[in-house]
Amino acid sequence: MTTSVRSHPVYAAVYDRYNRGAERTWLGEARALALSHARGQVLEIGAGTGMNLLRYRDVEKVVATEPDPAYRRRLRRRVPEAQVPVEVVDAPAERLPFPDASFDTVVSTLTLCSVDDPARSAAELRRVLRPDGALLLVEHVQTDAGGFVRAAQHASVPFWRLFVGGCRTNRPTLRTLAGAGFEVKELDRFNPPHVPFVMFPFVVAVASPTEGKAG
Ligand SMILES: C[S@@+](CC[C@H](N)C(=O)[O-])C[C@H]1O[C@@H](n2cnc3c(N)ncnc32)[C@H](O)[C@@H]1O
Q1: If the chain, 215 residues long, is cut into consecutive pieces of 10 residues, what is the mean pLDDT of each piece?
Q2: Could you point out which of 41, 108, 146, 181 has its C-alpha 20 to 30 Å from the C-alpha of 137?
Q3: Where in the numbering of this chain does the Methyltransferase type domain appear (predicted)?
C-alpha cells in the first residue's frame, strides 16, 4: 500500500490564484452545493489550502486531513477564519487514523483525482463513515464516452500529473466508490467553462454507504 505522498510545493503555492476565476463562478457554486449536505462530525480528505473551510455551517466539527506539508501550511492559516471548529491532521486518504464509523459526513473535493491508491482510499472513506452518513463529492471523473476524449484522458496523465499537482485525468471515481460500497444518491454532471476537455465531466454527488459490508 502506498501511503507516503509526494509534495507539490509549487502547485500548492499557486493553487488559490490558479483557481480564482473558477472559484468565483462554477467551482464555488459546486462546493456550496455539495457542502450544503454536511452535518455532524465531518472528515475532509486532502483539504488543500482550505477552500472549503469557510463554507461549513451547522456542523459540529471538521477534521481536515492533508498529507502534503506545502498545502498543510496554507490550510492551517485558514483555520481561524472558519465558522466551525476545525482540526488539521496529517494523513493520506489511504490510511486514515480514525476509528470505524466515526464521521457523519466525509468530503472529497478534487482529491480523489490525486490520491495514489483510489480503491484503498475509497475503502477507508467507507470504513470511517457511519452507516447513515453521507459522502459529498466535487470531482472530475473519466468520461463515459469512449473514443477520442477517453484516449486523450489516458494519454494526458503523465504530463498532467507532473504539472497539475499529481492530478490524474482518467479516474473512474464513481465506479471505484461503487466497488468500495457506496451508492450515489444525487448526481449532477457538468462541463464547466474554461476548463480543458480532458477533465470532463465534473460531478457534484452525494453518496451513501450501501447496506452490509463494503464491496
Ligand atoms: C487539487 S488539490 C484539491 C485541494 C482541495 N481538496 C480543494 O478542494 O481545493 C488535491 C489535494 O489532494 C491531496 N492529496 C494528494 N494525495 C493525497 C492522498 N494520498 N491522500 C489525501 N490527499 C491527497 C493534495 O495534497 C491536495 O491537497
Answers
A1: 77 96 97 98 98 97 98 98 98 98 98 97 98 98 91 90 87 98 98 94 98 62
A2: 146
A3: 43-136
Cell of 65: 486531513
CA of 130 to the centre of ligand 1 (A): 23
Mutate to test the pocket of ligand 1, among 11, 114, 128, 195 (most ligand atoms within 8 A of CB): 114
Q: From residue 186, give the alpha-carbon distance in Å to each of 34, 174, 175, 189.
A: 10, 12, 15, 10
Longest CA–CA separation in the chain, Å: 47
Using CA atoms, how far apart are residues 76 and 103, in angstroms rounded to an integer?
21
Ligand 1 binding pocket (C-beta < 6 A) is 5, 45-48, 51, 66-68, 71, 92-94, 109-111, 114-116, 165-167
Q: What residue type is 167 in one-letter code?
A: C
Distance between start and end Cα atoms, the chain:
18
Q: Whose CA is nearest to atom 4 of ligand 1?
A: 48
Domain at 9-209, CATH from 3.40.190.10, 3.40.50.1100, 3.40.50.150, 3.40.50.300: 3.40.50.150
